[in-house]
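Exercise 7b. Backbone tokens:
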């Protein structure tokens, strides 16, 4: 047990991070419900420098608290993150989403979008969408579930939905069959099929071009949402529906 060195973690770096029944992680216990002694030990650990986003926004966070919540931060390298000499870089992630993560790390909760004024609901929903992607990467499923619920609620209360600029990064950074892919593809499908919406399939061209999965998911969502309704058979139609000439021009075929 203990540290390999002052600059790197052992895989099992602190006994208090595990139950007496073995090496079962205790992170399913909300940080707010921990005994005071355990929480104090977590925040007495060395400080890690964490840099997030292109702006390299800087946080100083307790190492053992990070490790309590997720094993992502324990290794020497983690996907897009790099840990060297007490430094972690998450330069492809969103600082606003990381703000919410920090609140969860220390308080075990994030704000409810319903408590925010109307002008802040959409920005908060957008941050929760990015928080979901971050939590998916760093393996924090409980907060990920909370984030997607807050995202959905924020969209509903703000009366806004993500456009192609928000949807494409989701498909770029999440795995197939991800719940958030299902959510945003259903949103896009509903926008396309809504006769009162200004959106059509062309609105999502960048998403269709960037991901075949998005195209499949949207088509599946439209099929599920429209029910057992069959299009008219185009091979049975008569006339010049598929000819290349103007509508007012005389058709010389047939």
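Sequence design result:
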């Amino acid at each position: 047990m203990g540290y390999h060195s002052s600059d790197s973690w052992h895989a099992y770096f602190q006994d208090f991070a595990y139950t007496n029944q073995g090496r079962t992680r205790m992170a399913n216990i909300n940080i707010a419900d921990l005994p005071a002694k355990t929480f104090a030990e977590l925040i007495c650990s060395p400080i890690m420098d964490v840099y997030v986003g292109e702006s390299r926004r800087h946080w100083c966070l307790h190492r053992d608290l990070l490790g309590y919540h997720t094993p992502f931060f324990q290794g020497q390298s983690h996907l897009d993150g790099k840990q060297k000499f007490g430094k972690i870089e998450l330069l492809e992630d969103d600082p606003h989403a990381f703000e919410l993560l920090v609140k969860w790390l220390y308080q075990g909760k994030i704000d409810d979008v319903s408590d925010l004024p109307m002008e802040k609901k959409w920005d908060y929903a957008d941050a929760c969408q990015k928080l979901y992607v971050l939590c998916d990467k760093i393996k924090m499923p409980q907060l990920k579930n909370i984030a997607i619920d807050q995202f959905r609620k924020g969209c509903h209360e703000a009366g806004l939905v993500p456009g192609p600029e928000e949807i494409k990064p989701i498909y770029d950074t999440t795995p197939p069959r991800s719940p958030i892919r299902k959510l945003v593809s259903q949103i896009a499908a509903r926008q396309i099929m809504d006769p009162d919406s200004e959106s059509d399939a062309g609105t999502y061209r960048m998403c269709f071009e960037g991901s075949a999965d998005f195209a499949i998911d949207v088509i599946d969502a439209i099929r599920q949402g429209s029910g057992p309704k069959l299009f008219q058979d185009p091979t049975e139609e008569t006339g010049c529906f598929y000819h290349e000439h103007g509508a007012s021009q005389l058709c010389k075929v047939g």
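Instructor comment: Strands lie at 47-52, 57-62, 77-78, 81-83, 87-90. Residues 1-26, 76-85 have pLDDT under 50 and may be disordered.
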